[in-house]
Write a structure and sequence with these properties.
- The complex is a heterodimer of chains A (about 270) and B (about 250).
- With about 270 residues, chain A is α/β, with parallel strands linked by helices.
- Chain A is about 35% helix and about 25% strand.
- Chain A contains 7 helices and 10 strands.
- In chain A, a hairpin with a 2-residue loop joins strand 1 and strand 2.
- In chain A, helix 2 runs parallel beside helix 4.
- The longest helix of chain A is centred in the C-terminal third of the chain and has 26 residues.
- Chain A is globular and about 55 Å long.
- In chain A, about 40% of the residues are buried.
- The C terminus of chain A is likely disordered.
- Chain B is mostly helical and about 250 residues long.
- Helices cover about 85% and strands about 0% of the residues of chain B.
- In chain B, helix 2 crosses helix 10.
- The relative contact order of chain B is 0.12.
- The chains are: A alpha/beta (about 270), B mainly alpha (about 250).
- Chains A and B meet through strand 6 and helix 2 of A and helix 7 and helix 8 of B.
Chain lengths: ~270, ~250
């Protein structure tokens, strides 16, 4: 587990300011979720921490080392499992170990152990395309954790799964996180998911992306998505997000208007 | 096996139809010979060794020309898929050249290389090159970006990224290009051998034409079809099928 320091991170795409002065410190082993409307730059922020994109200003430190590019000390999970179709499930989980120079025998043993933890050891010699979407994400989780990274970055990893599978994955992720305790940055647009999983939930404003509010979730784990306190907190996050979602909706109705100064919904008589 | 038998039955029916057509259509033999005559010509030339020799000569040219094309085309396609500056410059040229049948290069090739084996190899190489390059470029470019990002996060870079991630990910697409390239190489070779007579199946066909022996012309055509089909079914098609099954591409 390693701390992440996001210090004054700014990101521009040409003229457009996507992220504006983001400051966020994530403690070692902490689970932080980032929520925000689509297009607010939350995935961009995750990519900057990953080293897949570079900040236009500011910097990211992981364990006091500035992030200069992608590297195996931080692993990522995307919405798609991104498993390699030409390898078996076991070979996929072995892949990061073999790149790290672990001997084949060792790698197999460790990968097998990880697959047992996600209850997929029976499918070790299957091909990724033979598994369901949820199973593929469990393999991706095993692959992300097999090298014991200090940091796990997750970009809407369960957004493409059905509701039941997603609930099962939430339990799985919490269990594995408690076991390995990586520092987690989890991007999602699903507020309840954020409250269920996170120690803290960071809400991003949009146009440009700014940190609006960070809400602490002091609830015992494992959490139940139908728990009363989870719902109360979700409602609070949703209220904070509502203005931002309205901003996006107004922009979609009238794409010529950009930035601040967009009239609130229902105001004015323009058609 | 049942499918194989059905295919054989289909071809047999086709030949029977051809025979009936010639027999009862009162078509002169020198215009459209019956299958039996074509078979006789094939048999005679097979036994005399002239057809096997022609096939050998053609195959040698094909393997060398096509092999060079693969060696040049795949790396070039990868470079085009990875380097934007090459894509809009050389890439445009390649697409343009794809419209040009490679046999059009023959006059220049004869001038540059003389009446030599190299001239025809050049034509075969160019025949296959464009489709191999374009398919490889496309295959490289359509590798899902997150697959590469995931690989880079796991520490893959440089030649490890290329050989253990990018190439396997693009392999099914590259294979499609190789298959297409094979067909184009084959066509270029036949065109070349027809025009630039120096052994090979093309010359076998050409001789038939000069002697007004349509049975030989048809026999040459039949051997070209048979060889093309055999390669497609027995080698390239089989590899492609296995790769597609392994990569899980036939499910969706």
């Amino acid at each position: 587990m390693k701390p992440i320091y996001i210090q004054g991170v700014e990101k521009r795409f040409g003229e457009r300011l996507v992220l504006d002065a983001i400051d966020l410190t994530i403690a070692p082993g902490e689970f932080v979720c980032i929520v925000g409307p689509s297009g607010c730059g939350k995935s961009t922020l995750l990519n900057v921490v990953a080293g897949l994109e570079f900040a236009s200003a500011g910097r990211v430190l992981v364990d006091d080392q500035p992030v200069k590019g992608p590297g195996p000390d931080r692993t990522v999970m995307f919405q798609e499992a991104t498993l390699f179709p030409w390898l078996t499930v076991l070979e996929n989980v072995c892949f990061p170990l073999s790149l790290a120079g672990v001997s084949a025998e060792d790698a197999r043993a460790r990968a097998m152990g990880m697959l047992r933890l996600v209850h997929l050891s029976r499918f070790a010699s299957s091909r990724p395309h033979e598994l369901s979407g949820g199973m593929r994400q469990r393999v991706a989780l095993a692959r992300a954790l097999v090298g014991r990274p200090g940091v796990l970055l997750m970009d809407e990893p369960f957004a493409a799964l059905d509701a039941q599978t997603r609930d099962a994955m939430h339990i799985e992720v919490q269990r594995l996180w408690l076991e390995f305790k990586p520092t987690v940055l989890f991007v999602t647009h699903n507020v309840r998911e954020a409250v269920e999983l996170g120690d803290r939930v960071a809400i991003l404003e949009t146009l440009p992306g700014r940190l609006k509010e960070v809400i602490e979730v002091r609830l015992p784990r494992p959490r139940d998505p139908n728990d009363r306190d989870v719902n109360i907190l979700s409602a609070r996050v949703n209220r904070a997000l509502k203005d931002e979602i309205d901003k996006v909706m107004a922009l979609e109705r009238d794409p010529d208007k950009t930035g601040p100064g967009i009239p609130p919904r229902g105001a004015g008589g323009h058609i | 096996m049942a499918l194989f038998l059905k295919r054989v039955a289909f071809i047999a029916a086709l030949i029977a139809l051809w025979d009936l057509f010639v027999r009862f259509g009162e078509i002169p033999t020198y215009v459209f010979p019956a299958p039996l005559e074509v078979g006789k010509n094939l048999w005679t030339n097979l036994v005399s060794g002239s057809l096997p020799l022609a096939i050998l000569v053609s195959m040698k040219r094909l393997f060398i020309g096509y092999g060079l094309s693969v060696l040049a085309g795949v790396p070039l396609g990868i470079a085009l898929g990875r380097i934007p500056a090459l894509s809009w410059s050389v890439g445009t040229l390649i697409v343009g050249l794809q419209a040009l049948p490679s046999i059009c290069w023959l006059p220049l090739a004869l001038l540059w290389f003389g009446l030599s084996e190299n001239a025809i190899l050049f034509v075969v190489l160019l025949g296959a090159l464009m489709s191999i390059v374009t398919a490889t470029e496309d295959a490289i470019r359509t590798v899902p970006p997150n697959t590469l990002r995931a690989a880079r996060m796991m520490g893959a870079r440089g030649h490890v990224l290329y050989f253990r991630v990018l190439l396997p990910a693009a392999f099914p697409g590259i294979l499609t290009g190789l298959k297409l390239g094979w067909i184009f190489a084959w066509r270029a070779l036949m065109a070349g051998e027809l025009l630039f007579v120096a052994g090979g199946i093309g010359q076998y066909l050409h001789t038939g034409r000069e002697l007004n022996d349509m049975a030989q012309v048809l026999a040459a055509m039949v051997s070209i079809i048979a060889l093309g089909l055999a390669f497609d079914r027995l080698i390239l098609g089989r590899i492609e099928q296995q790769v597609r099954a392994r990569w899980g591409l036939d499910r969706s």
